[in-house]
Sequence to fold (154 residues):
Amino acid sequence: MHKATIALFVTCLALGAAGCAPTLRFNQSFLVADDMKISDKGYASLKSTGESFDLSPIRAAEGRVDHVVVFKVHGSYLLVGEGFKHLWRLWPGGQDEVHYQAVDDITAPGSGFSGVALEPAGKCVRFTFTKGASQSQWFVTSGGDHDAKACPDA
Fold:
């Protein structure tokens, strides 16, 4: 056999063996939202796991806040704070990094969200907030899809 063919065969075997490792299913979602205090430098940590986040870019976009509410749904985090203009989605970006983006079309009226809460809703997060004298809601998936009436994944 030619050396290049042997090398290709060995590489394919190694990649195939790596793909044959047993897998388990698990749900990377919180059962309840977590409240995170933000330091003066913009860092916040989850009480339950100690994971820390540099939220300074989000804080710069939203204004100074002392704490945020975060909920993990299927590996992505949804994050909001009192007075925020947006609901934010954070998702894994590699080793010790996350990407972040405001969830499209979910923006606060007037001076920002008030009475914010994040809670589980099947495959989604139910985001509630006060709008005027009434309570409003959005159901949001880990990918940022959203609907005001029900979980888009359902």
The longest helix spans residues 3-19.
